[in-house]
Specification:
The chain is mainly α. It is built from eight helices and no strands. It has one domain (2-119).
């Protein structure tokens, strides 16, 4: 939780964005977690919240790997993106929509980029016609 708070501060997330990312806990619950984390008090978070925090930390790590500076990574996160999954919107908008799946989608997108599996769509991609069984020939 301490690391989540540090990343949220670095990214300039509002309290409302933090609450959405964490799955809409009550404000009092969020502030209790933050206080306990900062005071190094042990407490338990449920699996949903832990998965959400893990996704944020994975996104943070991927941005650090893919970009030379934190500022470049933050610019990517907050700038419009043309990949289909983002539809021209900043990835941060997807992250703060409140669903766990959206956080994991951004994380998977960045993990794929880290692994070299993603390229910006180009003309060949847009005009691609999927293969069917008649296109496969064995010799």
């Amino acid at each position: 939780m301490r690391t989540f708070l540090a990343v949220a501060d670095l990214w300039g997330l509002t309290e409302q964005e933090r609450l959405r990312i964490l799955g809409y806990p009550a404000r009092s619950t969020y502030h209790k977690w933050a206080k306990q984390a900062r005071e190094h008090v042990e407490f338990t978070l449920d699996a949903d919240v832990l998965t959400r925090i893990s996704a944020v930390l994975g996104i943070y790590q991927a941005l650090r790997v893919l970009f030379a500076t934190e500022q470049e990574g933050l610019a990517w996160l907050r700038g419009p993106h043309q990949a289909t999954v983002f539809g021209g919107h900043p990835p941060i908008e997807l992250m703060v929509d409140g669903t766990q799946d959206s956080l994991l989608t951004v994380r998977r997108f960045l993990d794929a980029a880290r692994g070299g599996l993603y390229m910006e769509p180009n003309t060949a991609d847009r005009n691609f016609i999927p293969y069917d069984d008649t296109d496969i020939h064995f010799s």
